[in-house]
Amino acid sequence: MANYRWRDSPDIIARLVNADKIQTLATQQVMLKPNEACALIVDGRIGDVVTETLLKSMAGGFSRWLGDKMGVTASDRRLLFAMTGPMDYWIPFEGQIANGEKVTGFANLRLKMDIDNVPKLLNFFANNAPTLTREGLISIIADEVKARVVNPCLATCNDASGLRDAMFLEQFEMSAESGMRNLLSNLGYTLLKAFPITNPTDMEMVQRHRAAVEAQTAGNQANTEAQLAQFAQTEALTLARIEMETNVARARARGKVTVELESELKQLRAQEAKWDAEINFERGKMEIRVDEADAKTKRAMDMFAQVQDRKAQRIASQQDFQNQRMESQNQFQRDMLEMAAEHGALTPEVIQEMLRQQTAQKAVDGSGQGGQKSTPMNCSSCGTQISPGWIACPNCGAPIS
After folding, report:
1. What is the mean pLDDT of residues 349-370?
2. Is the terminal CB of the chain with fewer CB neighbours within 10 Å at N or C?
3. Statement to judge: residues 223 and 172 lie in one domain
4. Which of 69, 3, 60, 63 is nearest to 26 (CA)?
């Protein structure tokens, strides 16, 4: 017993097999997998739909050949095989969005067939080849997918960003489910999932190119800045090395003359020490002379101050003595004048005599006070010249203010 293979390519999704056309000496059998189904059609009537089983004595063999010759078997026996598992179908499309941008891509439809719907494929095989492939099914549903789903959904997008929006994907799936229900139901398929896969538009390509150019420009700028920083660092290191080498060369040059300068420096220091000693000696002598002169000046000033103090004391004592004497004479004269007035002997001659005595006495006192001279005055009544110190005019007797 041999195994019959109804599906020899992954693109085959259904096949209608005429069992009467299989003429082999060995009996054919088919192993149906869990995602495969087979509908039995005998003499134009649809029989059972089986899956996950082994169909024995499907066709071929001597006994079936002999039965056909004797007319004891069915005159028409057909087997409809189909894939029931979910399969993806990519339908290419080309359209444009609201702003006129061209959009290309694929509409992905995930379809599944129920076991009970396998006989519906007879609608397709009635007018087509007995083998249905993935491309064949796509050619059947492609135009309707473009007209009912793709173009209406693209018309709602104002720009390319709307193609990447979740609302667009949801709208596409809902449109596919409602718009493709009749066609897929006639073929026996059920829509599980639908979503578009759009290629980048021209504007997106331009934006991508612009972003790439900006990124490359920024990268070049960063590389340039890094190179400039490296050049600056190299320059700084080079300048530092040159400066270090220059300092070393200068230090070596200074080291060569250090020995020669040390001897000259010692001589200069010795001469400087000698000059300092002489200067200090002369300064000491000058300070001594100055101190002596200051001491003499101070002694002279002290002695002069003492002399002045003594002179001032002497003058003060003389002045006190004279003042006391003058006060006593004036008091005596006043007393004499009062006595003369009481006895009626106060005559002009007496007054003149007293005034002359007073004048003579004042002249003596004035000579004793350093020879100071007083300026004579005239009487305001009679115009007679009055000597300094008189208290009344000797002519008219008017008092001197």
Report:
1. 66
2. C
3. no
4. 60
